[in-house]
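tool=predict chain=A
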Amino acid sequence: MQTVSDTTAFITGGASGIGLAMARAFAAEGARLALVDLDGEGLREAKRELEAITEVIAISLDVRDREAMAAAADRTERELGPVRILCNNAGVGSGMGGMNLETMRYEHWDHTLGVNLGGVVNGIQTFVPRMVERGGPAHVVNTSSGSGLAVIGGAQFMYCASKFAVTGLSEAIGSLLKFHGIGLTLVSPGFVDTRIAETTRKLDPAAAEVHEMDPEYREKLERFEELFDPLGQDPDEVGTMILDAIHHGRLYCQPDRLMAEPIQARCQALLEAMPPETERDRQMAEMIDKTRQ
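tool=predict ok
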């Protein structure tokens, strides 16, 4: 898409962080906005800021709620016109209970996977059929993470599982969307100042419960936040990069180089684990290439 001017963008997690940054970048270019978030107070603040620039509606919902997503889609298209830009951005951290083997519970798995993966699935299932029916130009933005490309610590195993899934989903469905004139960008941020840990504790009762009852892990998280928060990338920088990726139809948006070495090491380890190439491998590779054409 050469421009997002005079289009409608639907942004989950739009009350703060990267979602709000995308909203600012899109609004500056003339897009109308539907901001979706579970944080009602944050939504109101974001709407007040952006409605001075463009048309904005704010919708409070849980992205795991499929009926609510469908209703939000209907309202958005009724009030602002067809959604041409879909940003599946809402996400949470694993919470303290989802960061160690002793305190993990099904509730933590359900919440992390439900929001980070299920929210993306629900956004795609709600909007992509509409986009395909209308045809392009249109664009989907899925927010994954550097932790969806390589693992730098086992403590984020639930978070990594959800983000690796978003990476695979995006790469696969993006290869199909292009035939309908619809682009897709996979955003894999490193460390951005989004306050995701704080948001997770605020909106996830199970994570908050474990955070309060486990002083050792609470201390570790607070120490981590104290050390790294000053180094967090400005979300507005990321929002501008995403807009540029939409303009140029890029699949990947890598806001920084934080994960460069872990990604390289992972790819090298995978290649080294493979046996020597055989004639069968060459024949299979040729067949796969033909299916991509």
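The first strand starts at residue 8 and ends at 12. The radius of gyration is 20 Å.
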